Amino acid sequence: MSQPRSPLLDLPPELRLRIYELLFQPQVCYLKVARTVYTRRKSTISATGRKEPVPEPMHLLRTCRLIYQEALPVFYSHTTFDIEIRSRDYGTSASCASGWRLCWLADLVISPQVRTVYLRVPPKFHRRSKQVTSFADLWKTLLRKLEQCKSLARVHIEICEESFNPESIEGRDWLRLKFLRRAGGLTMYVEELHEEDRVLTSTSDKLQMLAKHLRGSVAHHALHK
Question: What count of Cα atoms within 13 Å lies in the side-chain half-sphere of residue 110?
Fold first, then answer.
């Protein structure tokens, strides 16, 4: 016996799109990346004081192919992907407290429909001991994966100048950075770490030149809070 047709599909397409717009509210998807990828979701506090999971409208995408094709672009247009590069993986207990292990970085697939990415490196990445992988390796891997995101409209890079040397960028990585610039707005937020461990929001000449070369801009504000 065939399943009954959903009344949603009897609505005009423009009304269905409006419903998707209301259903998929702006949100941030947090990814923490080292050798493995961890994801974290926000929780809401109920009237009883208990943490309740955020509603999951994603289940709608499983109902039928038409709804999936119509609603998925709306979801991605409303979602910012906050990717933090870490110097090492979480331990077992920390991973339980901070989120869920998603996959190995090498196996991570970023949808071509992703539109907004916030890529950042903690200020003290370069000073942390027992790093299991280098920043350069993580950086190259993420650039390679973001290069597949043909729908990118906004890319924001937040980085500490002591963690990143523009002179070390190789030819293929330049092309990938230029792709991010062509895809839409490319902005940077650069932190200068001083010996007394005070973090100031200033920009280095090298990174200013990098932004100029990419026709991007160095920003003093975050893309989201």
Answer: 27
Over the chain (225 residues), what is each successive 10-residue block's mean pLDDT? Answer: 77 94 90 84 47 66 91 93 81 52 85 89 58 70 85 80 60 72 65 45 54 55 45
pLDDT of residue 93: 44
Which residues are bridge partners to 79 per DSSP?
Answer: 27
The three-state DSSP-derived secondary structure of the chain is: CCCCCCHHHHCCHHHHHHHHHHHCCCEEEEEEECCEEEEECCEEECCCCCEEECCCHHHHHHCCHHHHHHHHHHHHHCEEEEEEECCCCCCHHHHHHHCEEEEEHHHCCCCCCCCEEEEECCCCHHHCCCCCCCHHHHHHHHHHHHCCCCCCCEEEEEEEHHHCCHHHCCHHHHHHHHHHHHHCEEEEEEEEECCCCCEECCCCHHHHHHHHHCCCEECCCCCCC
- Determine the Cα–Cα distance for residues 192 and 119; give it in Å rounded to an integer: 17
Cα 140 to Cα 82, 133, 143, 180, 211, distances in angstroms = 17, 12, 5, 13, 18
Hey, what are 178's tokens?
């230029």
pLDDT of residue 119: 85
The pair of three-digit structure tokens given for residue 198, joined into one six-digit string: 């005070």
CA distances to 108, 180, 206 from 115, in Å? 17, 11, 28
| Tokens found for residue 33 | 């990346």
